Every structure is written in structure tokens, then in C-alpha cells.
Amino acid sequence: MDLEKLKEEIKVDEGVIYEIYNDHLGYKTCGVGHLCRATDPENELEVGDPVSVERVDELFAKDLDVTIDECRKLYEFFDDLPEDAQRIIANMMFNLGRPRLSKFRKMYEAVMDANWIEAAIQMEDSKWARQVPNRAERLCERMRNVA
Length: 147
Description:
This protein has helices spanning 3-14, 53-74, 83-96, 98-101, 105-112, 116-124, 127-131, 133-144, and strands at residues 17-22, 28-31, 34-35. It is mainly alpha-helical.
């Protein structure tokens, strides 16, 4: 999978913010949608405090590694999927995390059957698609065209 392409796609969807901010649920976040954990030094910072470019890049690289590992755990044949399907699933994994993406059971079955149109339908028919409509619309359209 072209990781540079995936990085750029996720940056477009998540945005890149070089300071501490609260996400839409009120959680302390920074960089490329990085949820600050109790073990992160950024967790001690206040909303509006700056975060360096180097630190944002470091957090994003770690978050991408976790994302790809989680994709491989959820989809046993992840590396054998078409390139675009891999990037779509990884984008969703980055956004949702494995606990929530694993609930897309019908999408999972459609992907395993290489039924890209059904996978897109299942993506569209979700709370996620209503929460992030622009992102979902782009990813669903790409999923329909994976063939």
C-alpha cells in the first residue's frame, strides 16, 4: 500500500492542527486527529498550547502504524485486498478505531466477497456516514469503484 498516499488522504480528512484542541466530543486532541492519552505529555497541555511539527509527525507515524496493525487484525487478508480498498479501510480505521469498525459486519462480509458496491452500501448505511458525511461520501464513492 502506498503509505504516502494514505497519509495525505487522512490529513485531508482529519486536518493538521499544531496545537491542543478539543475534538467534536470534547476530548483533548492534537496534530492529525491524535487523541491525547494520559501517557502523552500533550495531555498536560491546555487547549491552544502549541505542539511542534516534529511531535505531530511522530504521533501521526505511530498512529498510522497502529492503524495498519489494526486493519490486519480485523481483515485477515488485508494485504491481499486491492490498494484502494486497503486505503479506504485504513482511513476508516484511523477515524473509528477497531472496536467501532468491527461492528460494520456486513461491510466486512462484502469486502471479503470482493463485493465493493455492497461494501459501499453498508458504509453509507451507518451512523459514521451521518457523522462525517463529506468523508463518507468520498470513501463510499471510491469503494464502489474499487473493481
